[in-house]
Amino acid sequence: MTLTTDSRVDHPVGSTAEYHAMLNRLSAGSVHKNFDPFTDIDWDAPEFAVTPNDPRWVLQKESDPIGSHSWYQAQPVEKQIEIGMWRQANVAKVGLQFENILIRGMMQYVFGTPNGSPEARYCTHEVIEECNHTMMFQEMVNRIGKDTPGMSPALRFIAQFIPLAGNTLPVIFFMGVLAGEEPIDHVQKAVLREDGVIHPIMKGVMGIHVAEEARHISFAHEFLRRRVPKMSKLGRFLASLMMPVIMRTLCDAIVIPPKQFWVEFDIPKQVRKDLFWSSPAARQSLRDYFADVRMLAHDSGLMNPVSKLVWKALKIDGKASRYRSEPARGLDIAA
Ligand SMILES: [Fe+2]
Ligand SMILES: [Fe+2]
Fold first, then answer.
1. What is the distance in A from the centroid of ligand 1 to the CA of 94?
2. Is residue 28 in some structural domain?
3. Cβ-contact 297, 243 below 8 angstroms
4. Which ligand is the nearest neighbour of the Cα of 205?
5. pTM (two decimals)
6. Where does the pLDDT of residue 297 fall: very low under 50, low under 70, confident under 90, or very high at 90 and above?
7. Residue 12: which residues within 8 A CB-CB, separation 6 or more?
8. Residue among 38, 89, 51 at smallest CA distance from 258
9. Does the residue 147 lie in any domain?
10. Cα 211 to ligand 1 centre (Å)
């Protein structure tokens, strides 16, 4: 299994012909480099077994804010493992629920596309990949053995309506796609950098996911970069205000564990407050998730004096990336 991210597109797309060529390249990438969760992961291999008291489930401070908190680090290792397994199962569950919404919304979009549309073909490839991801994440949750709920009940209720935006408000819908994919990608890359410490299940699943998400994130960026400049002035202005709200709301929904987590492990309120998002380190992580999205907002005309205030009020302002996936450049804040 070879994992590459070379189908990622790092330059803005100009003409329609160039855009279609990019879509065809992404579609070819999907045909030639794709993964099957049940042939590319050897779930029954001995090293994949989930065994009690395995310290590889302890949350690492580099990739999970909970792992960095002194309260967590002061807990007995058995409790750290239990919290780690629950947390990682829940992140996978939220991820697959988010992908389920995305699949339904993208199919709504595809339903309205004309014959011969390169977007329709690429989106369908992406949906197939996302279906595989949902099976892969569900298998991981099942094997970890924690019955985690994923998103909060409110979001699970709203989830049935969000896909309708796929064809009625595609710009808003694809902003939502990015709002989920960017933080998940950010967190998973951080987990993979801890090679050797993490459980092989996490490594296998996330390696596949990060490789395929590169294409998806490229597409969502280019889709918005093309669509937004064609909107009316008023539409673009409203979209510029919606963008940071969507980013922050969905990020919280994905990254913050549901109420059950805090109750089950009797975690003090102050710990929750520190982690999401009062401590300086937590605030910085939150800002870092969206450096690429701020670049997109600048490039596509979605950053203006009023929207900047919204980014700032929601604490996700900061420097924009100069290119996609640029490593974070410190604490300087200048939206
Ligand atoms: Fe995915
Ligand atoms: Fe994706």
1. 11
2. no
3. yes
4. 1
5. 0.90
6. very high
7. 222, 225, 299
8. 89
9. yes
10. 10
H-helix or E-strand spanning residue 90: helix 77-111
Q: Amino acid identity, residue 203?
A: K
Res. 3 pLDDT band, cuts 50 70 90? very low
Q: Residues 196-208: pLDDT tens digits?
A: 688 889 888 999 9
Report if residue 5 sits inside a domain.
no
Q: Tabulate helix, strand, coil % of the chain (nearest 5).
A: 70, 0, 30
> Which candidate, 283, 289, 285, 295, places its Cα nearest to that of 319?
295
By residue range, what is the domain housing residue 284? 64-330
Residues in the chain: 335
Contact 93, 298 (CB under 8 A): no
**Domain CATH for 132:** 1.10.620.20
Quote the CA–CA distance of 60 and 273 in Å, as a whole number: 19
- Between the CA of 146 and the centroid of ligand 1 the distance, in Å, is 21
In the chain, how many domains are there? 1
For the record, the structure tokens of 268 come out as: 């003090």
| Residue 116 domain-assigned (yes or no) | yes
